[in-house]
Amino acid sequence: MTEKPSKFTMLRSLLTGPGTNFIMEAHNGLSAKIVEEAGFDGIWASGLSISAALGVRDNNELSWTQVLDVLEFMSDATSIPILVDGDTGYGNFNNFRRLVKKLCQRQIAGVCIEDKVFPKTNSFLGDGQQLTEIEEFCGKIKAGKDNQEHDDFSIVARIEALIAGRGMDEALRRAEAYADAGADAIVIHSKKADPDEILTFCRLWDHRVPVVLIPTKYYRTPTDTLREAGASLIIWANHNLRSSIQAMRATSARLKQHETLIDVESEVAPLNDVFSLADAGELEEAETRYLSGQ
Ligand code: SPV
Ligand code: MG
Fold first, then answer.
1. Among the atoms of ligand 1, which is closest to the Cα of residue 122?
2. Which residues pair with 186 in a beta bridge?
3. Which parts of the chain span the membrane according to its record (predicted)?
4. Which of 56, 84, 162, 216 to mutate to test the pocket of ligand 1 (most atoms within 8 A of CB)?
5. Ligand 1 site-directed mutation target among 31, 43, 46, most atoms within 8 Å of CB
6. Which of 3, 198, 264, 265 is 20 to 30 A from 152 (CA-CA)?
7. What is each CA distance from 43 to 63, 70, 175, in whole angstroms?
8. Taking each helix axis from N to C terminus, what angle separates 93-105 and 134-147, rounded to the nearest 10 degrees?
């Protein structure tokens, strides 16, 4: 019997495998299950979404161990790999290498870190994004790689030079340096609706390590264009959170207004869906095995 590859190896294959792969945002155990149920091969544990789902801002208001606790629920609930948004690594190289060890111990397949300073601000907010020095960030990547407890754990280095308005040369310089430092892939991020700067980067970069794209703002760009540009992995970064906000608002508003469930019942997931997502059947079956002596 061939053994199932580890979650680490599964994520590495998504990054390095042929063609373009896709991972989908989740922010808790339930949304992670829904991503797997939809057929995705991997999960993006979005910092923005995990923060928002807990009612806080995407400014490192959650501690890294609180994020780890959420990740544990997500990982336990699913069999596909998780790439976690590790923000800036929650400090310097020392904080990051400890994070990497803990992620490996909890079977989280990879982490993406961005070259900004702690505490970070979401890339789509404000104009004053401050980048960390290249050398400092390279040290962080090296420290992470030196401390990973599984060979196929992935560190994805996210370049914020275009977000910070520092230009294409700076973005390319950083991509080279991060690949040299041992990053397994890079993210080139953009907040523009027009994909030009992303496509230019993809043309100029030698793709020595895989490129990951997050087309949240340039969502009108056909996926085939990103494929042809050489994207190895595309992240749908926050769309489960955003769809849940819309659905919850609609249901709450309807109930507040009409004070009856009559119109709502057919608009929400059946209760049985909730039980089956939580695998209630497994417990019933276990009870016949383990409580039968009672
Ligand atoms: C996230 O999902 O938290 C991200 C992606 O970092 S973005 O919001 O596009 O910066
Ligand atoms: Mg984030």
1. 10
2. 157, 211
3. none
4. 216
5. 46
6. 198
7. 21, 13, 24
8. 30
* Mean pLDDT along residues 74-88: 98
- The domains found in the chain, sorted by start residue, are 7-238 (3.20.20.60), 245-290 (no CATH)
Which helix (H) or strand (E) segment holds residue 25: the answer is: strand 21-26
Q: How many helices (H) and strands (E) does the chain have?
A: 12, 8
Can you give the length of the chain in residues? 294
Res. 110 pLDDT band, cuts 50 70 90: very high
Span from the CA of 270 to the centroid of ligand 2 (angstroms): 32
Threshold 0.90, pTM exceeds: yes
Q: Comparing C-alpha atoms, which of 6, 260, 220, 16 is closest to residue 108?
A: 6
233 pocket-lining for ligand 1 (C-beta < 6 Å): no
In short, whether 46's Cβ falls inside 6 Å of ligand 1 is: yes
Active site residue 58: yes
Nearest ligand by distance to the CA of 48: 1
Residue pLDDT, tens place only, 185-225? 999 999 999 999 999 999 999 999 999 999 999 999 999 99
pLDDT of residue 231: 98
Alpha carbons 280 and 272: distance in angstroms, whole number: 9
Q: How far is CA 141 from the centre of its chain?
A: 18
Specify whether the CB–CB gap between 181 and 132 falls below 8 A.
Answer: no
